[in-house]
Write a structure and sequence with these properties.
This protein is of the alpha+beta class. Helices cover 40% and strands 11% of the residues. The chain has 19 helices and 9 strands. A hairpin with a 6-residue loop joins strand 1 and strand 2.
Length: 475
């Protein structure tokens, strides 16, 4: 071997020679050789122009690409969001811009890099027109350093008049699913889906076709791309969220720092600016299950020795709320009739009832509001979201955002789980799985939406409950 007889002292001597050479010519020796150079910025132009860019995802065959137009004064963090949106990524991983494709390419740092102790030029205040200027200029964008997705942005045309907002002009093929194993894993998935999920093409990572189809994003096909849908997402990206209360604003900022966009995209929906007025009739309808509970207990009622509602009260509540029509088994014991138990627990959390010394009774504030459904609903609204722990508060705000955006009730659970996952919550032992949507706040909203009449299987949009959620969100 060539290294035979080359001892450690020889290596040290070689390094010292290099360092000496660097010192003699005024350089930093090996330090200069290994140090990554910082990007060189162009002067800020006197006039803002725009760029038509073709964005190619390198290594994909046939290629996955997009054509976009962006103003020259767009900052690199904003361009990052535009790339994520137009390509179809979920911003679940780190990214980096670089100015060449060489081994030691100059690159811009993110705040995460600085927090990790790296030194260099932060991307935050860098404009695109400080990096590119003419047709043919290129900029590289890396995403997810595990799967290693490399993109190249090439200037196709310099435009004298910037578009009012970033726009996607076209593209081909769907973005690969997140965490699919890079270009090799994507290629296997694409071949399998194009074969109509044939057994002969199923990737080895899946135990069965059912396992693979369950893992894939719903409706994903490698050849699908909708430019109109993409531009709708871009419109939502640049829209400002509805003004929200302080706690939710802090959560929105936190989610943005994580690179998550789900909460922001929910709060920019036009429906979030919808009405917050609720008529007396609508208020009476949504508080109905709570009003029935209040009617049954009257000014106060004794509980059983075990602390439950008495059987006659349970039976009356179940009948009047509609629970009896669908609950399996007798509805005369609270501990065996979960919907009644949940109604009572939620009413207590909302401050509608109190339990003291073996008696259940309306709270003093609710006694003052007796017969006024709007006042009772205002009281309920003022108590939301429920919970004290971070998990309960986050889940509560997620539930309010989803309901306030007028998402159909069939999609509540999945949408809330996705927002919670964006906020960093998962399932113990499986950090890649979204957590369940359950929370005291969601329980209250489902009861207001009429869950006792619907076996808990709500459908469509309840305008009054959406208004309740918006009242809480907007303060």
């Amino acid at each position: 071997m060539a290294s035979e007889g080359f001892e450690a002292p020889d290596v040290q001597h070689f390094i010292e020679l290099l360092r000496s050479a660097g010192a003699m010519d005024g350089g930093g020796g090996l330090d200069d050789i290994w140090r990554r150079p910082e990007p060189q910025l162009l002067p800020v132009p006197a006039t803002v122009r725009a760029f038509r860019l073709r964005v190619d995802l390198l290594g994909t065959k046939p290629p996955v690409w997009r054509r976009i137009e962006v103003p020259g004064d767009i900052t690199l963090p904003r361009l990052h969001e535009v790339i994520q949106t137009t390509m179809g990524w979920t911003d679940s991983h780190l990214h980096r811009f670089r100015t060449s494709n060489s081994r030691n390419a100059p690159e811009f740092l993110t705040q995460f890099d600085l927090d990790e102790g790296d030194e260099g030029l932060l991307e935050d205040d860098v404009r695109l027109d400080q990096v590119i200027a003419a047709e043919g200029d290129r900029l590289w964008y890396d995403y997810d350093f595990g799967d290693d997705w490399e993109h190249v942005l090439r200037v196709e045309k310099v435009l004298e008049t910037p578009p009012p907002a970033p726009v996607c002009l076209g593209g081909k093929r769907a973005c690969p699913p997140e965490d699919c194993g890079g270009t090799w894993g994507y290629s296997e998935l694409a071949d399998w889906v194009r074969s109509d999920y044939g057994d002969a093409h199923i990737p080895d990572v899946f135990d069965s076709p059912e396992d693979g189809r369950a893992w894939l994003p719903v409706g994903w096909h490698p050849d699908a791309f909708d430019v109109n849908e993409t531009n709708e997402l871009l419109t939502a990206l640049i829209a400002e969220p509805v003004p929200v209360v302080k706690e939710l604003a802090s959560l929105l900022e936190f989610s943005g720092q994580r690179g998550a966009r789900g909460l922001r995209q929910t709060l920019v929906q036009p429906s979030m600016y919808g009405p917050t007025e609720i008529s007396t009739d609508a208020a009476a309808e949504v508080i109905e299950p709570f009003q029935i509970l209040l009617d049954v207990i009257g000014n106060g009622s004794d509980l059983t020795g075990a602390g439950y509602l008495k059987p006659a009260a349970v039976e009356q509540i179940a009948q009047r709320t509609g629970i009896t029509r669908w609950w399996i088994g007798k509805t005369n014991r609270e501990d065996l009739t979960f919907p009644v138990a949940e109604l009572r627990a939620t009413a207590r959390a909302l401050g509608l009832i109190s339990v003291r010394e073996g008696r259940i009774a309306p709270t003093q504030v609710i006694k003052r509001h007796a017969g006024d459904p709007q006042a009772i609903l205002r009281h309920i609204t003022g108590r939301l979201p429920l919970g004290r722990s971070a998990a309960e508060r986050h889940a509560g705000w997620a539930a309010l955002a989803v309901v306030g955006s007028e998402r159909p009730a069939e999609l509540w659970d999945a949408s809330i789980s996705a927002l919670m996952f964006d906020l960093g919550w998962g399932i113990r032992g499986n950090p890649y799985a979204a957590p369940p949507a359950d929370s005291p706040t969601l329980a209250a909203l489902t009861l207001l939406a009429g869950a006792t009449h619907e076996r808990g299987r709500l459908h469509g949009v309840n305008a009054a409950v959406a208004a309740v959620a918006r009242i809480v969100i907007r303060g």
